[in-house]
Design a protein that fits this description.
With 283 residues, chain A is of the alpha/beta class. Helix content of chain A is 42%, strand content 21%. Chain A folds into two domains: 117 residues, Aldehyde Oxidoreductase, domain 3; 111 residues, Alpha-Beta Barrel (TIM Barrel).
C-alpha cells in the first residue's frame, strides 16, 4: 500500500458548497427524511483514484462507509467501488460532487497507468511524468491522480524545482542561468531545456541535474545522448523528453534510453472515468 | 457583444498562488529584473474563452494589456490573442496559470460551439446544454466556457432548479415528486426524468415544466413525443434528451424536434485548447 | 418533518469567532473550570427557527445536547427549547451567538407564519414570499427562516431566476427582455414587472412565466387579471403582487386570486424573538 | 467630521458574491452592454449610514462616484444620497447589496439618533449604548451604524471588556468575580450586574468600574444610587441601566442621573430605512 | 487550573498546510504505512505553553493522545511533555508544526514567568505586560503564551483600549485627547503617554485611567509619582512604565511602586524553547 | 538587484485586520481627519527586509510612498527607511503592523548576513541555510528574510525536497529509504542524515544528493569527509552540517570544507530589529 498526499478537507467541502449555495431544493421539496444505502459502481474499466477524498467527505457529512475499494485498485466495468449508508438528503447532496471527484481522478489515473505500462514494456527504467498543465485550482488533485496512476509527479509548482525554459532563455543565456540557479539553492533540482545537442552539452557542462529535450525528433534525441556520452556527461545528468508526445508516438521515445517522458495530456486533456451512484431504498 | 458572469478575483489569484506557494524560484535565481512584452498565440483553431480572466489577473499583477481579442471570438492557428507588457518576473509567474485558464475554457468553448452548430444545422430550435459534470471547484468557469461556446448553461447547482432523477424516484413516485416540488416554490423550474413514454405522460400531467428523456433510443423519443402530443401536452412541456449521447449520435437526436440535448462530455471530458505564451526581449 | 438547507459550519463558527477575537476575558478571569447545564427558554410565543444551527455549533464545541425541540415548532412563552451540558466556559462563549441566531431566525419565522396564515384564511392558494431584502451576508439564514415560517423562498440570488424590473426596463423594452431571457436558458423561470394592465398583457404574450404587479392598487390588480383572462392568458402565467404591502393591507391583496405576495418586511424589518439562556450549577 | 471603523473590503465583496454565485442572469441575458448613471434616493427621512461601504464597493467594481452625501448626515424623504456612473451590468449586480447595506445601517443609525436625542433632552450626560445583540456576522456593521447614530458602542465582543452577568453569578460570587477580573488585566474595564441595591454596593466596594442595573424599576434605580452615594461610591462607579427598556419607558430612566442606557432593540429589532436606486439611461 | 483563549482550529490547520502544500514527499516515498508512538520531550527547562494547540491538532488529524502535561506547568530538561499514537505518516506530517508551536509559545511563557518572578520579588503588586509587538499574524498565540507565563496581556489590539502615544500627540493635545476618548466610550480604558511629570499631571487631571511613563529614568518616575501624589491623583490612576527596559534594568523600575512594566521583548525577541519529538517503532 | 518571492496581499491585510478587529478606537475618538507624513527610521544598524511588504500595504490602504530604501540595503542607526503621506488615521492604523513586519524580517536578515559573512571569511564556498523552524504561519516571511540576508533557503516545506532524518530511520533503513525516494521522483533532491562516518558512506552509496551530518563534532565531520573521499564519493555528494551550531562554534565548522551549515536560530530565535515610525504634522 502506497501513501499519497491528502487534499485539505476544506477544499473538499468547498466542492460540495459550490454545488448547493442555497441547498438542494429538489431533495428538500421532494424527498421525505429517511435512511438509505447507496453504491458507487464503475461503468467502465478503470484505475481507481479519488476514493480517499470520497471517504473523507462522506464521513464529514455523517455517512457510514461500508465495503470499499482502495485508491490505485484496478476495477472492471460493473464492479462496486464503495457503499455508504445514511440520510437520503445527504447522499443526494453529495452525489454529483463524489462522482465528479472520482471521475476526474480515476480518468487521470487510468490513462496514466495505461501509458506508463506502454513505456515500461519498451524501457523498464523510463517513466512518464505529469506536468503543471492541470486544471486551475486542481493542481494537487491532478498530481495525486497521476501519482496513483504511477507517474513521476514532476514539479508540483514554481517553488519546488528550477526549470529553465524557452522564455527564460530569451532573457538569459542557458549556461549562465544554470550557474545562477546553482548559486541560488542547493536543495532544489535544476533542469534546463535544450533545443539542440550542442545546447544540451553546454547545459550539462554548466551543471544542470536534468536536461529537457523539448520537441526533438527521436533522431535528435539519439544524437544528443551520443554527444553527452562522448563528453562523459551522460551519467551525470538525467534526460527528460517532452513536447507534443502522444499515445501514438510515445514508444518511439520510450525505447531511446531516456529517463522521463513528460506528458501534458495526462492532465490537460482528461476524459472522466464513468461511474454511477445508485440509491437503494431501505426496507 | 454578450455578457457572461465574472469569476471572483480571489479565485483567480488563488490559481496563481497554488502555482507558487513559495515564489517562482527559477525566475528569482535566474532572471535579472527587466521589462518585457509577451504574446499569447493560438496554436490551433479555437473559440476563445477565459480572456476576461486573463485580463483581470494581468491587471491585478500590474501588467499593461496591449492589443487583445474578445471572449467568443474564433481564432485560426497562429493568431495572436493578447499582448501584455511589464515585469518579466510577473509574466513568468503568471504564464502557466494564464495558459491553463485559457486552455481549459477555450477547449470547452470550442467543442461546445462545434457541436451546437452541428445541432442547429439539423434543427434550428434545438440547443445543447452543459451539465453539472464539471471539474470539482470549477463549476462557474466550466459553465461560463460552455455559455461562451453557445450552450444553454442548464442548472448551475442544486439550488437553482428542481430535477427529479432516478435516485429520487427510488424514494418517491415521480408524479408525486413533481407535485411536491410545485408546492415548494414558484420561482424554480421543475424537470423530471422519464424512462418510458408512459412515465413522460404522467410527469407532464403532474405539471412538470421539462421532461428529461434519459438514455432513450431515438425511436423511443419519437414515441414519447407522440404520446405527449396525443394528450395535448407537447406544447406545455419542454423536452430534454440526455444519456451517453456522443458526437457521433448527436444528429440522430437533434433532428427529433426536441428542445435540449444535454452533454456531460462538454465539461467532463475536456481537451484543453493549445496556446502558447512567448516573451520578447525589450530592446 | 420538512427539510431545509444547511448553513455551512464555517459560517456558524465565524459568528462565534467574531464575538471573541481574543477569547472571552470574563470567563477566563472569573469562572473556575467546571461542567454545567444550560437551558434555552422562549420568553415570548414563537415559531422556532435556528435550532439546527444551534445544535451544530454546540456539538462542534463539545457540548452534549439534551432534550430539544424542532425547527418549525410553535412554542409558548416560558417553554424550554433546548438543554445542553458541558464546559461552563464553552457555554458562556457561545451564549450570545446562539441567542442571536435563534432570535433573528425565530423572529423571521414567527412573523412569516403569522402572515402566511392570515393570507391562507382569505385565499388558500395564495402564498407569501420572501425577497432579496435580507441582511447583508445572511441571505441563506434569512431565507431558511422564511421557509420554516412557511413562505415561498422566491429567488435566492441573481443567479437562479430572471426578474425584469424597472431598472431593466429603462434599458430594454420589457417584451423584448422576456424574449431574450427565454433564449438565454430554459432552466430558469422568467418573471417581469408590469406597471399597467397593458404591460402585463404584453409581457404575458412575450412568454413570461410570472407577472409581477408592483405597487398596484387592488383595483388595478383586478383590472389586470381581467385583461389577462380576456386574452386567454390567465392560466398561462402566475401573478405576484408586491410593493409596500403591510400587515394592514395584506388581506386586500390576498383575496384577489393572485398567486404570490412578496413581502420585503419579512427580512428587512426583523424583530428578534426573545429567548434566554440560563446556566444551572452542577451539584 | 467623525471617523468610524472600516469594514474589511473582502466582507463587502462577499455580500455581492452571495447575491450572485453564478452571475446575474437577468442582466446577462437581457441588457446590452452600456454605460449609465444611477442615483440612490432616500424614500423616508433618515440618518445616513453605510455610505462609506457603498463607495468602497462601487469603486472596487469600477464605478465612478459622482455627488455624494456623508455618513451621519440627516436626509429628508426624496433627497439624493449618491450618484454613480459606469457599466449597467455592474450597477445592476450591486443594486440590491448596496440598498441592503444602506437600508440596515441607516435604519439602525436613524433610530439610534432619535432615541439618543430623546435621552439628551431629559439628561444631557446620559447616553444610550448598543449591545452584542446584533445580527450574526454583522457585529461591526451594526456597531458602526449605532456609533454613527450617536450611541456609545459598548463592548464590541467578549474580548474587550469584562461584564459579569447572571450566568457568571451562578458560578461565582459577584464580588469575588470582580476581584478576579481586577487581577486579570488592568487594561479592560470591569462591569458587573446587580439585582439589588445591596449587590450594587458590594460590587462597587469590590472595585468594579461600572455597575449594571438590569431589569430594575426606576424606583429601584433611585434607591440603588442613594445607597451608593451614602457609601461615598457614586463618584467612583458609572451606572448602566438595561433590561427591556423600550421607546416608551426610556425617559423614565433617562431622567435618573444614570450614565448609560443599553438598548438591545437598536440592533436586534431593526427596521431597514427605505431607499431606492434608479438607473437613468445615458443619452 | 486557569483558562486561556482558544486559537481557532482553522488557524492551527493552516500551519500544517503551510508546511505541506503538496504533501510530505519524504514519508510518502519512504515510510511504509504503520502505527507508531511519539513522545515530545523538553530539551531545556521551560514553562510549557502551546500544549492545548498541540492536542487540538493531533486529535483533528486522528492521533490518540496518551499521557500529557498542562499548559503553564514547569518542566525540567528531559521531561516528557506529551505522548501520541497513530499513523506514522500523520506524526511525521505534524512533527515540525507541533514543535514550532510549542517552541515559540513555551519560549515566550518561560521568559515571561522568569521576569515576572524577578519583578514580584521586588514588588509583589507590580506586574509585567505584553505589548502589541508580536509576530505578524500571531497576536493571539503570542498574547496567550504571555498570559500563561503570568503577564498582564495589555491591549490585544487597537480595538480594545485607548492608548494615546507620541504620534497622537503630534496631532492633538494630550489632555484634549483624553477628554475626547472619555466622550467616545465608557467601556474601554484610557491610557496616555507622558514624557514629563507635568504632562503626567495634566493627563491625570484630564481623567485618564492609566499613565504611561515612556522612556523615563527611574529618577523621573519617582518625581512623576511624587507630583501625582502631591495633587491627590496617585490613587486615581494606574502607572505603567515602558521603553527599552531590559532584563538588566528591570528591577530598577520594579521597585518604584508602579503598577505595570510593559516589555516588548517578551514577544518581539523570542528565543524558542528547545523540544524534540521522537518516534518509537511499534513492536 | 535581486528578486524575492512575494507575500500574498491578503496575508498582509490579515495582519492589519488582526490588529483592529473593530477599528482603531484611539484615532477614531481622538484624532481629527487630516493628512500627514510619517517616516520610518532605523534605531539600530540593520539589513533591511520587509520593505516590499510595507510598500504593498501602504499602497493598498491609499498612502503615497515618498523616498524609500530597498530590501537588502544596509542601514546605520538613525537612517530613514521610508516616507509615506496620507490620512493620519490610516498611518496610525498601520503603524504597529508595519513595524512588526519590518522588525521581524530585518531582524532575521541582519543576523543572517552577519553570520553568512563570518562563514565566508573562513570558507568562500560555504553557505548558511535557514530551516523549517520558523514561526507558525510565517514560513514564507521568515524564509524570504533569510534569503535577503544571504542564506540558502533550504526546503520551504515538506513538499519540495526529501530529507530522511532520525525519525524516518526508526521506521526504515537509511540506504533503503534513499533508494525508495529515488524511485519516487526525479525532480526533488534527496538528503539523508548520518550519525556516523559509516552511515554517511552507506547513504552516499545509496545515491543521496546531500548528506546531513547532524550533531557531529568538527573532528567527526573531518573523519566522515575523509571516508567519503577515500571511496571516491566526496565529489558526488554535498555536505550539510547542523545541530545546535551557535555563533560561537560556527567557524569551527565553516572551515571544514563542507557546503552548507543549517542554523535553526536564524528563524527560531529572532530578535526584532528596532525601527520607529514618526508622524510629522502637515503645516
Amino acid at each position: 500500500m502506497k501513501m499519497y498526499p491528502e487534499i485539505p478537507l476544506e477544499r473538499l467541502i468547498s466542492f460540495v458548497e459550490e454545488d448547493a449555495p442555497f441547498g438542494d431544493i429538489t431533495s428538500e421539496y421532494v424527498v421525505p427524511p429517511q435512511t438509505c444505502t447507496a453504491v458507487i459502481t464503475a461503468r467502465q474499466d478503470l484505475v481507481l483514484a479519488g476514493l480517499a477524498e470520497v471517504v473523507r467527505l462522506c464521513e464529514w457529512y455523517g455517512l457510514i462507509i461500508g465495503k470499499k475499494s482502495t485508491d490505485g485498485a484496478e476495477h472492471k466495468k460493473g464492479e462496486e467501488i464503495i457503499r455508504m449508508t445514511g440520510s437520503a438528503h445527504t447522499i443526494l447532496l453529495l452525489e454529483r460532487t463524489l462522482l465528479n471527484i472520482l471521475g476526474r481522478m480515476s480518468g487521470i489515473a487510468s490513462r496514466t497507468r495505461y501509458l506508463q505500462q506502454l513505456v515500461e514494456t519498451e524501457n523498464p527504467r523510463a517513466r512518464i511524468c505529469a506536468t503543471r498543465k492541470t486544471a486551475p485550482g486542481l493542481r494537487l488533485l491532478d498530481k495525486k491522480a497521476a501519482l496513483i496512476g504511477g507517474a513521476d509527479p514532476h514539479r508540483f509548482s514554481l517553488s519546488d524545482a528550477v526549470l529553465i525554459k524557452d522564455n527564460h532563455r530569451v532573457l538569459v543565456q542557458p549556461d549562465e542561468a544554470v550557474k545562477r540557479a546553482r548559486a541560488g539553492s542547493m536543495y532544489h533540482t535544476i533542469e534546463a531545456e535544450a533545443d539542440t545537442a550542442e545546447e544540451a552539452l553546454m547545459i550539462a557542462q554548466a551543471g544542470a541535474d536534468i536536461i529537457l529535450l523539448d520537441n526533438m525528433s527521436p533522431g535528435m534525441v539519439i544524437e544528443t545522448r551520443a554527444l553527452l556520452s562522448a563528453n562523459g556527461l551522460r551519467e551525470k545528468v538525467l534526460i527528460e523528453v517532452s513536447g507534443g508526445i502522444t499515445e501514438e508516438t510515445l514508444n518511439q521515445y520510450a525505447c531511446l534510453n531516456i529517463d522521463r517522458i513528460s506528458l501534458g495530456l495526462l492532465t490537460h486533456s482528461v476524459r472522466n472515468a464513468d461511474l454511477s451512484l445508485d440509491i437503494r431504498k431501505q426496507d
